[in-house]
Amino acid sequence: MPEPIIFELSAPGRRAGGHAPASPPAADFPAQYLRHDEPLLPEVSELQVVRHFTRLSQLNYSIDTHFYPLGSCTMKYNPRVCNRLAMLPEFIERHPLAATEHGQGFLECMYELQDMLKAVTGMTAISLTPMAGAQGEFAGVAMIRAYHDARGESDRREIIVPDASHGTNPATATMCGCTAVEIPTGPDGDVDLDALRRVVGPATAGIMLTNPSTLGVFERQITEIADIVHKAGGLLYYDGANLNAILGRALPADMGFDVIHLNLHKTFSTPHGGGGPGSGVVGVNERLAPFLPVPIVGRDGEQYVWLTEADRPQSIGRLSAFMGNAGILLRAYVYMRLLGADGMRRVSEFATLNANYLMKRLQMAGFEVTFAERRASHEFIVSLQSITKETGISAMDFAKALLDRGFHAPTTYFPLLVPECLLIEPTETETRQELDAFVAALVEIRDLAYKSPDTIQAAPISMPVRRLDDVRAVRQLDVVWQPDNDPTE
Amino acid sequence: MLSAIGVADTETLFDEIPAALRINELNNIPAGMGEAAITRLMRSRAAKDAGVVSFIGAGAYEHHIPAAVWDLATRGEFYSAYTPYQAEASQGTLQVIYEYQSMMANLTGLDVSNASLYDGATAFAEACLMAVRSNRKVNSRKILVSRSVNPVYRTVARRLTEGQGIELVEISCRDGQTELAALDGLAAEEFAAVCLQQPTFLGTLDDVDTLTDWAHAKQMFVIAICNPMSLAILRPPGEWGAAGADIACGEGQPFGIPVASGGPYFGYLVCRQQIVRQMPGRIVGRTVDIDGKPGFTLTLQAREQHIRRSKATSNICTNQGLMVTAATIYLSLLGSDGLRRIALQCHANTKVLAEKLGETDGVTVMFEPFFHEAVLQFDRPVGPLIKALGQQNILVGYDLSADYPELGHALLVCATEMRTAAEIAAYAAALESVMSSSKVT
Amino acid sequence: MSEVPGDRKYSGEHEWVQLLDDGLVMIGITDHAQEALGELVYVEQPEDGATLAKGDACIVIESVKAASDVYAPISGALAEANDALADEPELVNKSPYEEGWLVKIDPSDPAELDELMDADAYSQFLAESSG
Prior knowledge:
The complex is a heterotrimer of chains A (about 500), B (about 450) and C (about 130). Chain A is of the alpha/beta class. Chain A folds into 3 domains: about 5-55, no CATH class; about 80-340, Aspartate Aminotransferase, domain 2 (3-Layer(aba) Sandwich), CATH 3.40.640.10; about 345-470, Aspartate Aminotransferase, domain 1, CATH 3.90.1150.10. Helices cover about 35% and strands about 10% of the residues of chain A. Chain A contains 15 helices and 13 strands. In chain A, the strands form 3 sheets. Chain A has a 7-stranded mixed sheet with strand order 1-7-6-5-4-2-3, with helices on both faces. Chain A has a 4-stranded antiparallel sheet with strand order 10-11-13-12, covered by helices on one side. In chain A, strand 8 (about 295-300) and strand 9 form a beta hairpin. In chain B, the strands form 5 sheets. A 7-stranded mixed sheet of chain B has the order 2-10-9-8-7-3-4, with helices on both faces. In chain B, a hairpin with a 5-residue loop joins strand 11 (about 285-290) and strand 12 (about 295-300). Chain B has about 450 residues and is of the alpha/beta class. Chain B is globular, with a radius of gyration of 25 Å. Chain B has helices spanning about 1-5, 35-45, 65-75, 75-80, 90-110, 120-135, 150-160, 210-215, 305-310, 320-360, 385-390, 420-435, and strands at about 55, 110-115, 140-145, 165-170, 175, 175-180, 195, 220-225, 245-250, 265-270, 285-290, 295-300, 365, 375-380, 395, 400, 410-415. Chain B has 2 domains: about 55-65 and about 335-435, Aspartate Aminotransferase, domain 1, CATH 3.90.1150.10; about 65-330, 3-Layer(aba) Sandwich (Aspartate Aminotransferase, domain 2). The longest helix of chain B is centred in the last third of the chain and has 38 residues, at about 320-360. Chains in contact: A-B, A-C, B-C. The interface between B and C is small, with 8 and 11 residues.
């Protein structure tokens, strides 16, 4: 029995008591401004609401309930205390426009967070305001553009991206009025340096790289890449999606990067929340510091203050109505203080250990690892191409069969370069037992792929729904509930 | 595990990082803390920010949040799940978003809502980009924006759209309303859209019907920016003028999200059916599975960055899933009757506040009618008053002088349903006392 | 093996072009292309009055998981777009060479037709690229 849509639980006049004022005065606006009909919203009791959303929650896989090895997303445990402390009443009741005198406790946390983020990246200045990775990317490319413009080099509008990059990279370049230029990856997973040398020139604004790359390997020629791009007059952008792999082992600044964004919801364990909120803080070196987005937390004697456009006239400006996702920043702050310097190094140590262990176990079980001769970073790629050829069972089928076995699927079909791939990121917070169980599940699915492929193609069978008709979802768009619309008809 | 991998120690696992780049410790990071110690630290920090009573709105509004909202939203199954790409394992999150989309469409009187964007300002910027992409009748990259639209929304939208050659052109205001006389001067030019905020940033009510009809006659799209709480009593964007606005957007924070120093909030974006393919962000649709059973999935995904790369409608990939979960629970608990009561009480409280403060010598209430924010004009700069009353833990409002110098010494005040008669009286008394003392002039 | 009718020309981007009696050319995607894309859910046509240059991305066709550009195989002014696809994009799947045509254009340089492949050449092109 599927959980009804909340509107279907309604009864006229029913409501959860005690949440709204009992008898407000009537509206005294001229009639032209008033709404004629009440908006259709549910009319339900509080217990109905609690049951409905509790039941809905139980239809989800989550880190708290299942192994969730979603590559490039860093689905690690989100310590409960981070949420508890970010939700302290004084923090959540503070109005964003309250004077800084009434926010010294909050601002002190933010100031120290900026300092810690400088330390883990080697950059010289940080802005906390971007609200997600994609916004951090936007800020980074906008700063690169502003830098070239300030030097009178407004023809520099090409952003180089490897073909394995996240889709946000080229999309960001377009949003910033730049052009994305793709370069190929070499057979060993590193960037093709000759191809890079061919595309750099007077139109180069910069290059966007993830390191370790989206292929799950460390880009060993990073210093050469930095040289080539810098000599051509371009800047280096670090997509921090995979910082978890090198936390406390190497600093992006030392690799030659001029600007970075970090996904706090990955490396610093803030919640993924069913797809957000994130936080995409940016860091820069001296060269780009004047262009950082505002506001930034500064210090004036004993007082913490906001630095705004007035203090930083070359800033690329504001990206959000206030200061960004403050509550997420607080969670990241608590997480970093819990771990401390040594704990952060243990993050990369165990993330890398778990990934290499899992990679080796799968290899020993006969799976094809894409860069088998390379060290895995915190994630790695398994290609199912030969299994697909022999059995017709695709990476998507494997993903669905994993769901039946109590595992969330790894990332499938990304990076686009590797056919029928699974990008697997176990993270540091999983036990060896969990990893072994995951290997056993994949082996079992592969055996079935050969023995009885129908059972795998039918998966999942134990989830709240089976495979959904995606084509119908687009052709017969049903995105708003209507009382008389029954999808089964 | 090391022997399975075939290495002697974990250090070896990092041997592909060139030696020159390796570091052996992190400097300038304090040592780790236990849970008890970090709790003490954070409590002491939080205590520094305690004890104030706020009359500030200006885009973030303090409302009562029922206990069930965050108790449910922070259940691990919501809190620690990710984007519902594996639909079969994410039906909970997907159905919540479907219910959210339905509620927002009903509130705004428009057809289709996305699964949310970062905040009100970015939703507005995305609405501008969307209008330029989808208005095929007017081939213009210029957009008209009323000066009564939240100033920081205008700033953010300029920032986020200028890379694509989009220009925001301001329409002046008069008496807290978009100046209809100014429209004549714009008759010759072509614009893709006009952007109107209702209630305006100044709390006033604009003549959105006339403006919508004017814009549609010129083939422009109309982008509505609305505090969604006001839609419980005010006419929804879908019913503005003869044909209704084309796109509505705004800040979803009033629906169960704490003000919390500015985020995380969520931006909502709703539009007419005809332009849904130009809508950025995620959209959830209902369909059936192979057994014919209803279920939910992300739909219209081909528009998004992970598929379209440099040709995507936006680089955005997150929605504010957790905030939308909270908002959907909030709206379920309140219903339209509850929202209406809150909206009316906010209006009534702000009226009382404006009246009381307006009795002070040197203070006048500027514009009426207003929803739940009012502009007060002072006979002296408001900066020192904000400071003086701040010392008494009263946050008196938002200083408008930098954004709207034409209004003189003006302050934007707000009293939501959370402010009590006693707090309002204390504010009025404190203001009276500070204004009459010679120290602050 | 996908169908390749002999009465039209083909591009390396898997489009077909057919010269009509009235001098217009009709453009669509090949059977091979529709099969590779999977079930189509939307076709975004060029704007009325558009002028297309050879190689321009002029049409977007969407399946559930992919959106692909169709590049103009020949230059000219848009004469007509197939409006039936607005409601039934699946016509491209069902009948790529007949009911599922995309646009008709008035060619500005009919000589460009000669640069395209004939059915035999395209069949061979398909065989080689799948090899």
